Amino acid sequence: MSESPTPVRLERVTDKRVVEFGAALGALTRLGQVLDHNLRDSVGISQGSFEALLRIERSGGFVAMGTLADQILFTSGGVTRLVDRLAKEGLVERRPCPTDRRIQYVAITESGRQKLKDALDVHVEDLEREYFGRMSDEERGVLADVLGRLRTSDPTCS
Fold first, then answer.
1. How many CB atoms lie within 10 A of CB 69?
2. Can you give the pTM of this predicted structure?
């Protein structure tokens, strides 16, 4: 009979930083799952599709594919697949750039705007219940400040 290996000691398993960051990731994951589930059930689109429609609308109704990929943190292949699905559903359409063949735009359709409007109604209710309703105004302000700093690429920015 062979002896079992000696377990490696992982002193940092209970490191406060590891535990707190894990709690933040867990909360974000849970919130994302709830929001995605409710959008799919209520409106028939994913959180990713919702985010793409929202970004396109905020950009004036159309945006370059590369810009959209950067905004929603997708690879170019990922945003292409997403736009293909949205176009198949009639929510967006592709438009060529008149001055540069390498650039392609994606534009929201009227059906896409209606789907976005319906999704926003669900999303705002979910945010109130799952996010805003769970914190005081002061806590939300602190969290917004911290998250704003974490979004920057320079850790010295405040």
1. 20
2. 0.82
The length of the chain, given as a count of residues? 158
Identify the domain containing residue 123 by its residue range. 45-132
Read off the pLDDT of residues 99-155 as tens digits, 9 standing for 90 and up.
988 899 999 999 999 999 999 999 999 999 999 999 999 999 999 999 999 988 765
CA angle 126, 130, 132 (to 5 degrees): 95
Number of folded domains in the chain?
A: 1
pLDDT number for residue 30: 96
Residue 92: Cβ-neighbour burial (10 angstroms; 0-12, 13-18, 19+): buried
How many angstroms separate the Cα of 101 from the Cα of each of 68, 78, 105, 133? 17, 20, 11, 47
Q: 44 with 37: CB under 8 angstroms?
A: no
Q: 102: domain CATH number?
A: 1.10.10.10
